[in-house]
Write a structure and sequence with these properties.
This protein is α+β, with helices and mostly antiparallel strands. The chain has a single domain, classed as Immunoglobulin-like, CATH 2.60.40. Helix content is about 25%, strand content about 40%. Helix 2 packs across helix 3. The longest helix has 16 residues. The chain is globular.
Length: about 130
């Protein structure tokens, strides 16, 4: 294969891969060996409240539940702030411990500290 063809193939490959977008996600990993829960309470601009309860099964190894945040979502500081502004509180419940986040700046710092990947597409919360 000549050098011009190789360059052309490389260029087309980079353009195609550049247009791919991976959905932002929130991974909740349960390593406790028993059932755990991740629960958050939201309120929209009109005052409607909602509760989301996610049960993460127990067992050996990592048991993972994933919330897809949508394409184009990254866990940038601006998007973390937008996300935490909609949440009243977060509860992470295991058989031995309950973690409760109600303060917006605590939530912001928590999500910021748990970002993963080069483009911050994932927040990974590990319950141990």
């Amino acid at each position: 294969m000549n050098l011009n063809k190789l360059f052309f193939i490389l260029l087309i490959s980079l353009l195609l891969l550049n247009s791919c977008d991976i959905a932002g996600r929130l991974d909740i990993v349960n390593r406790t060996g028993e059932t755990a829960y991740y629960c958050y309470y939201t309120q929209d601009n009109q005052g409607a409240k909602d509760t989301v309860l996610i049960e993460i099964s127990g067992g050996k190894g990592d048991n993972i539940e994933t919330i897809l945040m949508g394409f184009g979502h990254t866990w940038s500081k601006a998007q973390i702030k937008e996300y935490t502004n909609r949440i009243e509180k977060i509860e992470m419940v295991t058989g031995k411990d309950t973690t409760l986040l109600t303060d917006k700046s605590e939530m912001f710092d928590f999500f910021l500290a748990h970002r993963k990947g080069p483009f911050h597409k994932t927040v990974k919360i590990v319950l141990e």
